[in-house]
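Reviewers of the previous submission asked for a worked example of the structure-prediction workflow described in the proposal, so we include one complete record here. The input consisted solely of the amino acid sequence. No template or homolog information was supplied to the procedure at any stage.
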Amino acid sequence: MKYLSVCAGIEAASVAWHQFGWEPVAFSEIEPFPCAVLAHHYPNVPNWGDMTKFKEWPDATINVLVGGTPCQSFSVAGLREGLADSRGNLMLTYLGIAQKYRPEWLVWENVPGVLSSNGGEDFATLLRGMAELGYGVAYRILDAQFFGVAQRRRRVFVVGNSRDWRRAAAVLFERHSLSGDSAPRRKTGKVTPAISASGTGVSRTGFNSETGFYIPTDTDVAKTLITGIKYDSEVDTFVTQSDNVAEVFPTLGCEMAVAMRESGQGYWMRDEVAETLKAEGEDRPSRPSHVIQQTAMQVRRLTGKECERLQGFPDDYTAITYKKKPASDGPRYKALGNSMAVPVMAWIGKRIQTLIDELP
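From that input alone, the workflow returned the following structure tokens.
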């Protein structure tokens, strides 16, 4: 399988689909830092740049066109200009690229706000455009928290297939849901687990192979921050001490009194610890919170590594040399925040691959 990724960002699709042996023909990305990440990880894959110039791109045979065109014009937090915004118009450019290369599969992603933008007409324009090109389509909102990452991230995914709409539907919907049978509701009172010491997700999570969703067990503790962080007084910030510490990082102490610093250790301490989320309410022993800065007494920001884990990327995936020095947090945060969640893309890719293997 060969794919073309537009609005590629830092390539969640490639991280997700590498396991299936799929190969990127090219990327389309113009933002400087994501371009540097692509060049670092995929030096042999061309970046064709500005997608609005797709008519100048070389001919190629591709099986999948994937892309998440900019969401700002459709977001409920934005100005909601929809297709009147040049960024929203990249939705139509995506259709033009599909017409040029005629892949069997289309995969498109955006924020849920696209469904209501311009009274739903903007999204209807996309669906009509795909239908006019001969694609049967299905769409669904998928939430990354149910795929093993530590955040609630709802996104609309559209899948199109040039042969049959039922193939597109079979990718996004489980067979029992297509027949009208609703899956059993999860028990009330359970919470979504966050980050474990070993990486994204929790250490004791059940995976339902039928639905493709992760289900937290009753004994899972939501672990919000990576382990091994300590305060370095020389640089007045928190640094990674070790990735092998088997402790759960609490976020805030139970009391909002001023924290006491442990003598000689550089840790901020509280008498009691309140971990953010638990599936069970068992008591936990006191341990350093590591989240209070010495000067402003503020909750610290997530590290770049933590943000990578929140999106399902490998550790230090964005920790590249950028402008002749180690990449700072700013561009890493932005690139990761704009990216798709890797486990969701892996789930979609696996279901497409399963259809290819099972159907002629």
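The CA atoms of residues 220 and 279 lie 6 Å apart. We consider this example representative of the routine output the project will generate in years two and three.
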